[in-house]
Structure formats: C-alpha cells, structure tokens
Design goal:
Mean pLDDT of chain A: 81
Structural class of chain A: alpha+beta
EC number (chains A, B): 2.5.1.18
Family (chains A, B): Belongs to the GST superfamily. Kappa family.
Catalytic activity (chains A, B): RX + glutathione = an S-substituted glutathione + a halide anion + H(+)
CATH superfamily of the largest domain in chain A: Glutaredoxin
Order of helices and strands of chain A: EHEHHHHHHHHEEHEHEEE
Oligomer: homodimer
Largest sheet of chain A: 4 strands, mixed
CATH architecture of the largest domain in chain A: 3-Layer(aba) Sandwich
Number of domains of chain A: 2
CATH class of the largest domain in chain A: Alpha Beta
Protein name (chains A, B): Glutathione S-transferase kappa 1
InterPro entries (chains A, B): DSBA-like_thioredoxin_dom, GST_Kappa/NadH, GSTK, Thioredoxin-like_sf
C-alpha cells in the first residue's frame, strides 16, 4: 500500500463554497488514500493579503452565485441556504471571532480532528443554513455544544479564543495559505512527491483526483454504485458471503465471466484480496484473474 | 425518445476557459440528447456591460490560472498553451475583429455549424496554442483555410466581417448574453422545460448533466469505458454481431446473467433496441429484461 498523500484544506466558515469543499473532502478522507489536514484560516486576511475583491461585488456575478450555490447544495447534499442579508453576514459581521474559536478548539484537541470538523460544520450550519449569528460567545457556545463538546471543553475554548497565542496561530495559518498563493477559499493543497499542488474552489475535485491518482465518484461517494479498492480498507477472510452486485472488467473473458456469475449466485467466492470500506460495503480484488468485483456485504 | 434540449454556448476565442468548454460541449453534442447552438460573442462587451474585471489582475490569481489551465488542458486533452505575453494578447490586441470574422462565417454558413466550429477552433489554436496573431485579415484567412473553408468562402467572409450587419449581429449576441446575466465566458444556457439554466465557466459540466438528466462521463466521453444510449443513435437490425465488452445492471438476476454471457460468447444476441453511437460503437438496450448491455461493434 502506497503511503497516504497529505492534503491540506484551508477554509473559513464565512465562505459557502468552502462548506461544499469541506463536506466533500470529509467524505473522501475515508475513500481516497489521503491524510486530510484541516486548516481553519481567516478569509478576510487572504483577500487583503492577495489584493483580491469578493466576487459578489459584480451584480450579475452575485445573482449567479446565489443560483449556483442553490444548485450545488442540492447536488452535493449540503443543507446550504443563503442568509437574508449575505452582505451584512459576510462583510460587516465577518468571521474573525468564529475562526479564532475554531482555532482554539483545534489547539486543545488531541488525537484527531473530530471536534474541529464538527464545530466548523455547526458554525457553517448557523451562518449558511439557519441565518444565525456566529460572532457572539453564546453563538459559538451553542455551536460547540451541538458539535458534541462537553460544557467544560466549551468553557475552556471560550477562555482561550481571545488569547494572543490563538490570534497568532490563526494569523500564521492565514499567512501559510498566502505563501501557497491563496487568493480565496477553499484552497486545497495536495502534497505529491514532495511538491504542493494547489486547487482553488469546490469545482476541481475531478481534476484533483486525476492529479493524485484517485478516482472521482461524484460529491457523494458513499451513494455511488461504483466502489474502488481503498488503501484505508482492510482484508477480511476468504470464502466470505456476499450479495450479488458486481461489475465485470471489460477485458475479462466472457466464459470465465459465466463461471464467476455461477460462483456468485452460490453466494460464495474465493478471493485473493477483500477490502471492507468505511461505509460497511466491501470491495474484492481478484487481480490474478484480471477482474475487479464490487460487492455489497450481506 | 424525448425531444432534444437546446443548449446555447456563448464564447470568445480570447478566453482560454472558453476553449475548454467549447471542446467539451462539441464532444458531448454527440453523446447527450441536446441540440448545441454556438453563440460566438464579444467578451470585452460582456465585461464592460456587467462591470466585471478580468480575474488575472490579482497576481496570485494570475499565477494560479496559469497552472490551472496547464493542468486542465492536459486532463481535457486540449492543446492549450499560454502565450508569452497573455496581457498583450488578451487586453491590448483583443478579439473584436476575430469574433466579427467568426460571426461572418456563421452568417454565411447554411445547413449546420461545422465551419463556425472549425474556424473558432483554429483561431483558438493560433492564440492559445501557437502564440500567433488573430487580429489581422491574413491571420483570419490562414485560420479559415486550415479549418477547411474554400478560397472563395474565405474571401467572402473577409469582405463581410467589417460590414455593419455583422458588427450589429455580434453586438446583439453579446447583449443577448448579458440579458441572461453574463459576466464572463464561457456561458452555457440550457433550456429546460422552457426555462433557461445558466452555467458559467468550464467546471460545471457534472452539475449541468445532473440538471438536464444526462450523465457526465468526464471531459473525454469517447475515451470512457461506459457508454450511454443516445438519442442521436439509430437502430440497427436484430442479430447483429458484437465483441464482448459489456456491463450488467446490478438488479439483473445472476442466473440470467449467465445465459446472457453465453449468448455473447457465441457473438450473437437478440436485441430489442440497438443504437449505433457517433463514434462507431453500439449501445444495446434490452429493457424488457431489465438489463443494459454496452458493446463495441465488431
């Protein structure tokens, strides 16, 4: 198994396209052979540092983005809804406090990033689904509790997020993004053979997959009929029982195909390699027969 | 067979992302059940009319676009290469004459749009692959001859392209684009149930397919192993001979699958409906058996 590629995701909860990118990458971290690193940063700092202007300033572009986000949200299955006054939400209220809070949660978390992931998601849900505030301490507290943090963890993060070390950490991550050439979020940095490949936006996943040698299965890989063998799966024993959802490789001789169908209809198959996927389905590779079989575990 | 959906593609050969979108749509016009209408227009007029600024003005964005285009060109299999001085090419020399010339070719062409398609492609090749001029009459003449136009057709288009009716036609198409909410190119307008759905850029094809009820097979559908039945195909006779590249529908009973494999290995199959694709391969639907079979014609 090749070592997992490190993929950094720079995001800010003020950015709706970042939410789409975030959910897709959180889904694919269990499908692709990658190590996803969440990089909460401050979009305002990136816009200022790069001299970029928000796209919504051009009326036609703003109207299009509204429509584009609605369509994408449906296709990506993310409950995104534009707030009543997006300009107030994005440019007057902003996200500096919220991103400092996420940074504080990240600073305190050990052994993974489940809290950072869940707190980010709940902040997005407030601002980009429920049209609720994310600037006040009680707003962050509510989001963090919904994300599953204990009262004491929430309290500690609220104590921490206005401290200088947290302000500096958020600033450093933002400058790190700028050093990669950021001019907006989401920005995804894939480290391939020691070199960073930069992808901006939530519309380069298919290209990204091509560049990192993985397969794009659409925004909902768990819903896809096709499954790929995954480095994150693990072997289970020969002779396992499956139900008969399968795909024959085009090069596979038709006669052997018949035998395989017979084996499958008997609900048993001798496998060289079997991988169980994160979502409970199973992938089988019988590579010596030049055939890939994809099955749902019974 | 449902009636074909009308899809309008607004483009300008000064825009590299338009080239990618153009090639993809020209490929899919033979795969999806659509009627593609080419709408050569003037990007400068759209930028001015919408108050938009070119994305390349932000240094980080410019650097990213250069990289993004190189990667996309490879993935899309379009021979796009940035010219030595893109600013001179795009903003000083521009494309008004070239787009008037394309408009003149379109005005004169009857019974299809092959000339418009080929001339547009050759102009893109000059500016975005070979770093050659597209502003002078001799440049347009060269492109048109390479596109397969006769000397007399080229001469007639050169006579026509500076005329007032052609200037007006280009202006009208550009204003038509603005009336759809354009702020850049490519812009693709899909007419679905009498309503226009607008897609900007060359990164919404998967979403577009979802919206028009078609399937996205990547930027090179002819290279894809999967084939879909196409409204543009036509039936051929029962008992035709095929070679054995096939896909069994997951719901298909495994035992019948065995029989089908046997039929295929005998190189004959009785089909309910057979469609021949534009690229010479053949799709077979045996819908009463609840199965789709995809075959290459022998």
């Amino acid at each position: 198994m090749a070592s997992r590629k490190v993929v950094e995701l720079f995001y800010d909860v003020v950015s709706p396209y970042s939410w789409l990118g975030f959910e897709v990458m959180c889904r694919y971290r269990h499908v692709w052979n990658i190590e996803l690193k969440l990089r909460p940063a401050f979009l305002g700092g990136v816009m200022h540092g790069s001299g970029n202007k928000p796209p919504g300033m051009v009326p036609n572009k703003f109207k299009y983005m509204d429509k584009d986000l609605t369509r994408l949200a449906k296709y990506f299955d993310v409950p995104l809804k534009c707030p009543a006054d997006p300009f107030e939400v994005m440019f007057q209220k902003g996200s500096m406090s919220a991103m400092r809070f996420v940074t504080a949660v990240q600073e305190r978390e050990t052994g993974g990033d489940e809290q950072v992931e869940q707190v980010s998601r709940e902040l997005w849900r407030r601002i980009w689904s429920e049209d609720k505030d994310i600037t006040q301490p009680e707003s962050m507290s509510e989001a963090a509790k919904k994300a599953g943090l204990s009262d004491s963890d929430v309290e500690a993060a609220l104590q921490l997020y206005t401290s200088q070390p947290i302000k500096d950490k958020l600033k450093n991550t933002t400058e790190h993004a700028l050093s990669y050439g950021a001019f907006g979020f989401p920005m995804i940095v894939c480290h391939i053979d020691g070199k960073p490949e930069i992808f901006f936006g939530s519309d380069r996943f298919e290209l990204m997959a091509f560049c990192i040698g993985e397969k794009w299965l659409g925004p909902k890989p768990d819903k896809s009929a096709a499954r790929l063998m995954s480095g994150s799966g693990y072997p289970c024993k020969n002779g396992d029982t499956f139900c008969g959802k399968f795909y024959l490789h085009p090069k596979f001789p038709t006669l052997l195909g018949g035998s395989l169908v017979f084996l499958l209809s008997g609900r048993h198959i001798l496998c060289k390699q079997v991988f169980r996927m994160a979502d409970g389905t199973t992938d089988v590779s019988v590579s010596s027969w030049q055939i890939f079989v994809t099955l749902s575990r019974k």
